[in-house]
Amino acid sequence: MSRTMLITGGSRGIGAATATLAAERGYQVAINYRSDSEAAERVVSEIEQAGGRAIAVQADMAVEADIVRLFDTVDRELGRLDVLVNNAGIIDQVARVDEMSFERVDRMMRVNVTGPFMCAREAVKRMSTKHGGQGGSIINISSAASHRGGSGEYVDYAASKGAIDTFTEGLAKEVAAEGIRVNAIRPGVVRTDIHASGGNPDKPDNSSKGIPMGRAGEAREIAGGILWLASDEASFTTGARLDIDGGV
Hints:
Number of helices: 9
Organism: Kushneria phosphatilytica
InterPro entries: NAD(P)-bd_dom_sf (IPR036291), Sc_DH/Rdtase_CS (IPR020904), SDR_fam (IPR002347)
Largest sheet: 7 strands, parallel
Keywords: Oxidoreductase
Protein name: Glucose 1-dehydrogenase
Helix content: 40-55%
Family: Belongs to the short-chain dehydrogenases/reductases (SDR) family.
CATH architecture: 3-Layer(aba) Sandwich
């Protein structure tokens, strides 16, 4: 019986790379997206053409009812959930803290922190042996910014990822005896289009000199770490924060 992985923000970048790699390794994959249905369907089509099974499900991570509907859809169409990858997240335009609006910071925290909390809540309800589940794995996508601060660029984004680091450790301890492992990946600068959405499309190239390995990462490299944490090879790993950042 195939295992099932749900990836929030799975239509592009790290999420899409994780979806295709997971399918290659035998997972059924649920790809969540907020608005770009065409991109999500392209990932689904690629997986299906390779012989895998995938579905795309629209849901906004800032809306609780959408999150509940997302998990209900996965239950109905794919069955038992084994792995949740809390990948969906946003950045905003480069700005100092004294230039940020309340609305910007509120949106950042709702999508990057509250959304993953609510997704984890729904996953625990399904995975925990306390609730009749059979265990599972939750992998939160944090960022190297969580311990570097994002000064002069995205302090709000960095702060949201710092919250994810703390959330990962706390939840891991809370559900460890219930068959659930909770870990985080902290990518450095990765070549994805999220930088363009923040008005900084050249960031991967411009950051290369400050990365000890001399280059930005690729989405597939982050996906490899996610699939390892989801696997039985990581069976004694929980509460960990795995840095995949080229040495920064």
